[in-house]
Amino acid sequence: MRFQYPWVLVLLLLVPVMVWLRRRSTGGNKLPFSSEHVLAHLPVGWTVYASRMLPYLFGVAMVLLVLALARPQKGLDEHRVKTEGIDIVMLVDLSTSMRALDFSTKLEKKNRLDAAKDVIEEFVMERDNDRIGMVGFAALPYSVAPLTLDHGWLVQRMQTLKTGMLEDGTAIGSAIASGVNRLRDSEAESRVIVLLTDGMNNRGKISPENAARAAKALGIKIYTVGAGSDKGWAEYPGAGFFGGTGRIEVEIDEESLREIARITGGSYFRATDMESLKKIYDEIDEMEKTEIEMQDYTRYEEMFMAFAWWGLGLLLLERILAYSRIGRLP
To answer: I need a surface site. Which of 34, 64, 239, 290 has the fewest CB within 10 A?
Structure first.
């Protein structure tokens, strides 16, 4: 606790003098007895003790009022957080090859898209201070969510994505251009695109390399993730002879993905299963850390009203008692 006007506390030195004057002013009530010896043996009631306490009650009230005038304040420690957020656009491949089951776990069959959704959700929900947007793509890009801090809503939108919802194909260059367009007007200190695909660019009018150069010109970094088994093939539903699970070839243009990352100053990662995919997004999370500056400060809460009300209350009580039977006792 502190006092806004500590010099007012000098008035506390006058309180003992005021109490003495108060006692002196009430010391004039005399009873007409010739000798005090008669009264010495009479029992003393509580009202007599109460009357003797009135000057001290007056003194306590004066102390509280002086403290109120000095404006006591209680300090509340608080923290102000200053953040330098990062704007991130997630590009997610929705081509039908993302149905491949090479990201299955021991507990369940999981295709590439479902695995990506699980990992991206965890990535998004851990970045509270960053605006994140999302673009799905196949033969053409599809806006899933603009840059937003409402990550719960973004995840809900992402869960609606499925393979086959767009014309099939893999337009990586167009997807990057769409992500760049969403970050063009961003004023964030850092702007990042995270591209996940399991194929090679075969649709769209913009080459991935030219789109990457446009990103570099705007200071946008691209991390590329190639998703697919390192066996050269992957299980695929409906590709079997009788419509059961069969095999498809894994075709990832790793050279192009590396070049995209190199041009923009990002990195290329290869995810071959669920575990490696999660590690990749964890690594990207560590590489793109949001700057957080913590400032400690103290906010003061006024307390003078409590002292003032208690002081005035005790002073009023003292006055009431002074004019009662108690105040008339010697």
So the answer is: 34
pLDDT at 241 (0 to 100): 57
Burial state string for 166-183 with b = 16 or more CB within 10 A and e = fewer than 16? beebbbbbbbbbbbbebb
Q: What does 112-146 look like in DSSP terms, one character per residue? A: HHHHHHHHHHHHHHT-TTSEEEEEEESSSEEEEEE
Domain ranges across the chain: 2-77+297-328, 86-289
| CA–CA dist 261, 254 (Å, integer) | 11
pLDDT digits (tens, 9 = 90+) for 269-307: 999 999 999 999 999 999 887 665 555 556 667 777 888
For 28-38, b/e burial (b = at least 16 CB within 10 A) is: eeeeeeeeeee
- The amino acid present at 300, given as its one-letter code, is Y
Class in CATH terms, 86-289 = alpha beta
Entry pTM:
0.65
Q: Say yes or no to pLDDT of 7 above 90.
A: no
86 bridge partner residues: 190
Tens of pLDDT along 82-126?
Answer: 666 799 999 999 999 999 999 988 788 899 999 999 999 999 999
Q: What is the DSSP string of 223-290?
A: EEEEES-TTSEEEETT-STTSS-EEEE----HHHHHHHHHHHT--EEEE-SHHHHHHHHHHHHHHSPP
CA angle 112, 114, 117 (to 5 degrees): 110
Distance CA 96, CA 134 (A): 19
